[in-house]
Each structure stands twice: as C-alpha cells, then as structure tokens.
Write a structure and sequence with these properties.
- Helices cover 3% and strands 40% of the residues.
- The chain has a nine-stranded antiparallel sheet, with no helix packed on it.
- By secondary structure, it is an all-beta fold.
- The N terminus is likely disordered.
- The chain binds beta-D-glucopyranose.
C-alpha cells in the first residue's frame, strides 16, 4: 500500500495572464506538486525488507529507487510528443534483481569497474579482493554495494530527494577501513537526476562509486544501436583481453572510438579491424574527461526516433561507455521485454579502472579525515 511521505509544493502557482481588450483576466493553474512516496518492494533472501521510493517532479517525470542496491528501477523521460515513458532496463520484482542482474540501475562500490587480479597495496600492505570477472575484480566484488540494503531517508527541500546511507565495515569484500557512504538522488524541476556521492573512512582505503543504469531512450524497445552519442573526450583507455587498462591514454582520432562529434552507436561497433572493439565486444571503455572537480558535460545521447536527449554532467575524471555487449536475450525484464544484446547502454561516471595499480592514473585513495565527494547529473530534454 502506498503511503505518502512527503508532498513538496515546489513551485509557486503558475499564473497565466491573458490580456483582454479592457481588463486583464488571470487564470491560475496549480501544477501537480512534486512528491516522494514509499511502498514495499518485497524482501531479500535473508528477510530484510526492501522499500521503493518514487520521486516525482511537477512535470510528471518519475524515478523509482529501491533500498536494495540503491537501484533505480524505473525512470521516465518525455519523448518529442511530451510522452513520459520508462527509459531504463530493470525488473518488475526483487527476485529479478537478486537472481543475477548485470548491475541494472545499481549503485556500485566500493570500487566501480575493474582491479587487475583483485590485488592492490596501500603503504606496502597488500589486499586481495574477489576475482569475480575473468580473474579480475569487478564492481566491488561478490556482494558489492549493488547487493546490500541501504538506509533511506527522504530529504526536506524544494525538490524531491532521497538520501541513502550505508556503512561498509572494515574488510568487507576485502577492502580496508569502515567506509561511511552517502548517496543523494535528487529529481529537479528541469528533468535532471542528480546523484551526489560522499564517503569517509577510518583507515586508508580506495573508493570509486558510480551508478550502473542501462539507458534505452526508445522506451526500452529494441537496441541502442541507433542512439547518437557524443563524448566530450579525445582520449580513452585501451584495455587488455580481460578489460584491464594497459596504461596508455590513446587518442580517439581516426578510430571507431571517436565520439567527439555525434555518431550512432552501431555505426562502427563491428569494426573488428580495431583490436579494442574486439576486446570490448563493442564499446566497454573508459573515456578521459577533464576531471577538474566541476560538473562538466561528459556525454550526450539522442535517440532520433523518440527525440529523447540525455546529457551527462560529472565531476569525475572518466566515464565508462558500455554498449551492453554482454546482454544476450536471456534476461526478461519489466513488462516481459527480453534484453537482447545492446538493448541498453551505460555511461558510468568514475575514476579510471585499475587506478589502485596504476600510479600515473588519478588517485582513488581515501584517508581518514578526508571526504570523498563526486556528483553526476543526467539531464533529459527533447530534440524535435
Ligand atoms: C563493465 C562491463 C561489464 C558490465 C557488467 C560494465 O561496467 O564495463 O564489462 O560486463 O559492467 O554488467
């Protein structure tokens, strides 16, 4: 049963003034207020209750977040006719998420992306993490932040926002230090979802948090091969066969990796003359961004048939562009849709993969007394 937690009347009343020949007639229309509502989304295998929070803005845009994995299960955006439809892959029930989801919509931590052989050292002390992906460590391990239940608290303010917190205990999944994490999801009046990540530790550790939403701007129909992508980046990180960066920062110019101008995802994705396309099975690479700590534009995606446009802004120094190459039609998601190869794409804002082992990459170390802080914004509009 739905319980209204908070109704936020964000906007003053809209006032439309129509000038008549003599008098000024005023018609006052109150837009539907933004809100956060809470409902139950079942429970985990160990009987922990999972809640769903629905954030809604005054335009009618909706984002549903569950406390399991901080997962965004549903996310609507308008098409060129103003129709709000769901544009992320996911499941209808908690069992789908627990049965082996490829991180649909989830918060990823402590370390998003890969760490070679699951090993890294801090001040001469070596740590070993799960080798859960071709012998490498991926997305925080066997029970990463995508599989834990976060504490949720709706925030007061003029925009609907949900604060999620999680304490990852010292040596959880092999990472040192008690890490206190906070993630705030805010749905703004301009159809953006802002994600603010922060964390503190009591012992030096490594952190790299992100969100793993798979977008399909054609309301989850078909593949994303027609989506036009622009990346604000002229270098990317080539990888080994097991998808660990080689350490090189390679210019994208004259390669299928060049998205400095808009290209359809599918235009060059099968260009197997480029070894990196072969290793990634398509795009599965980190692109280098400015990373100056400001919210810079990192990526733009436009789906020509629906007219939906998404812009991604981030303070992070890299963004992983993953074209859903490992989806293979075996998963059936919301509304019975089969998730075929490349039916969704991810743009994961983050630090560089394998940074703990590559001293030339920006540091991912977090020390006691410091605060890890990053922000990413996904903004929706339309192109007619
Ligand atoms: C990685 C892919 C991986 C996927 C898991 C992405 O972030 O880059 O290689 O298969 O996550 O769903």
């Amino acid at each position: 049963m739905k319980k209204i937690i908070l109704m936020l009347v964000c906007l003053p009343m809209f006032v439309f003034a129509c000038k008549g020949s003599k008098n000024v007639e005023e018609t006052t229309v109150t837009p539907p207020p933004s809100s956060i509502t809470k409902s139950s989304f079942g429970q985990t295998r160990d009987s922990i209750a999972v809640d769903m929070y629905t954030l809604k803005n005054e335009n009618g845009m909706e984002v549903k977040i569950i406390t399991y994995g901080g997962i965004i299960t549903n996310w609507t955006a308008p098409d060129k006719n103003g129709k709000y439809e769901d544009i992320v892959l996911g499941f209808d029930s908690i069992s789908g998420y627990m049965r082996g989801s490829p991180y649909f919509g989830a918060l990823i931590g402590r370390f998003g992306n890969r760490i070679a052989k699951g090993k890294f050292s801090i001040n001469g002390q070596q740590y070993t993490l799960a080798g859960n992906n071709m012998g490498n460590h991926l997305h925080g391990g066997l029970k990463g932040f995508d599989k834990v239940v976060w504490k949720a608290e709706p925030m007061e303010g003029k925009e609907p926002a949900l604060k999620l917190t999680y304490l990852s205990k010292d040596m959880e999944e092999g990472y040192p230090g008690n890490l206190n994490c906070t993630v705030i999801y805010t749905l703004t009046a301009d159809n953006s979802v802002k994600i603010d990540y922060s964390a503190t530790t009591d012992k030096e550790t490594i952190v790299n948090l992100t969100n793993h939403s798979y977008f399909n701007l054609n309301a989850n129909q078909g593949t994303i091969l027609d989506h036009m992508v622009t990346l604000n980046s002229d270098k990317y990180l080539p990888v080994s066969r097991t998808l660990i960066p080689t350490g090189e920062l390679r210019p994208v110019a004259n390669t299928p990796f060049d998205f400095t101008t808009p290209y359809a995802v599918g235009a060059r994705i099968n260009d197997t003359t480029d070894q990196q396309i072969v290793f990634g099975g398509g795009y599965d690479h980190a692109y280098i961004l400015k990373g100056d700590g400001k919210l810079n534009l990192a990526a733009t995606v436009v789906a020509p048939s629906s007219g939906r446009k998404m812009e991604v802004f981030t303070t992070e120094p890299a963004i992983q562009f993953y074209s859903g190459n490992f989806l293979d039609g075996k998963l059936t998601g919301k509304n019975g849709v089969k998730y075929v190869k490349r039916s969704g794409l991810c743009l994961e804002s983050e630090h560089y993969p394998d940074a703990p082992n590559q001293p030339a990459f920006p540091s991912v170390a977090l020390k006691p007394g410091e605060t890890y802080k990053t922000s990413t914004v996904y903004k929706f509009s339309v192109v007619k």
